[in-house]
Fold this sequence. Notes:
Elements: H1 2-28, E1 44-50, E2 56-62, E3 70-74, E4 95-99, H2 113-129, E5 138-143, H3 145-156, E6 161-165, H4 171-178, H5 184-187, H6 194-198, E7 205-210, H7 218-227, E8 232-237, H8 249-267
Parallel strand pairs: 3-4, 3-5, 5-6, 6-7, 7-8
Antiparallel strand pairs: 1-2, 2-4
Helix pairs in contact: 2-3
Amino acid sequence: MLGSLAKIFLGVAIAVPVLLWLFQERMIFFPQALQARPAPRAGLEEIVIAAADGAKLRGWFIRGSGPAAVVIYFGGNAEEVSWLTDFSGRFGGGSLLLVNYRGYGESEGAPGERALLDDAVAVYEYAVRRADVDPERIVAMGRSLGSGVAVHLAAERRVRAVVLVSPYDSLVSVAKRHYPFLPVSLMLRHRFDSLARAQRIEVPLLCLVATEDRVIPISHSRALFDAWRGPKTWREIPRSDHDTLSGDPDYWTAIAEFLGAQRQARAR
Length: 268
């Protein structure tokens, strides 16, 4: 009897990590279909960007009312970004560039860390080629999973500033907290190690966190914030959690004020 139980426990101990290794993409990425195409309006442009491997990434460029600054936004792991076309006016008057990850919305391909990081560079290169974008005034913004993409872009290309919402130090660190009984360091292929990159980024940072976040606890955001080399602003949104912080007016006020300060600093 004891021998049979030992075999069962051993089988489970082997099977669970193997299954997580094989199916981890389904635990990290949650592609969402395009729910409703944004209604045509002045300043709203549907765009298609060719990734390095030929995959077509689809999204929107929303021209702002102010100077040629632009925010490139990278969403969360279950976020189809078209909803932000209705909030483009809350980014301090600049333009907004929204592109869905591979497999999200109408973008082609399947998501993965290497693909998303490479695609971020492709989106950036698209932005700097536009005549209505000032290459010196590009801001990278990432939420949750997208914070790792934004940090990568800031480490690889010249950006004016970075806005991170519910960021993490690394997915390995966050996964260890949620699955302390698993050999996460050995299993996780999509590591998104923002902490290693933050130590060489010197541009201004706005870090927005929810006080009740249970998905990415504040300690993980704080570790990244503390490692950031450039000027940095920490802003907590009280009584909010991972999914509700953008519903607080203070969230949008903090973003608009930060972007406005970057414009003023650039003008001086």
